[in-house]
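Why do we care about 3D structure at all? Because function follows from shape, and shape follows, mostly, from sequence. That is the central idea of this module. The next example makes it concrete: a single protein chain, its amino acid sequence, and then its structure expressed as tokens.
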Amino acid sequence: MLPRFKAAAVHAAPVFLDRTATTEKAISILREAARAGAELIAFPETYIPAFPVWAALWAPIDNHDLFVRMADQSVSVDGPEVKAIRDEARSLGIMVSIGISEKSPASVGAIWNSQPAAHGERRARPGRTGVARGPDQTGELGRS
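And the structure:
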């Protein structure tokens, strides 16, 4: 028989275009779900800093100000926001997958829709993080 586990699918709004406040909210949600027995916690696409729904609703010329804010509030996989999520997963002994808007180190306007996953289980390489990026880019970021 396959092992059983409890999973939590997060359906909560981020703090709109505020990476720091959204990271804090995500950590609070992780703690709540872990207290309820969840071992796998999954957040939606681009939870940090927000999902850019405006891109599907208006022409780019009409939402450039939102794109500028989105790019400014996007995060780095090696940055403090993802590290805080990874560290919390490790301390709680859970697996977490969280959608982020990942900024490029090469351009202020290039961002990726990425989904880092951090595993805090002590039996399986603590703190290991994998990242899936966009439709064609994948990467493995080993962390211990």
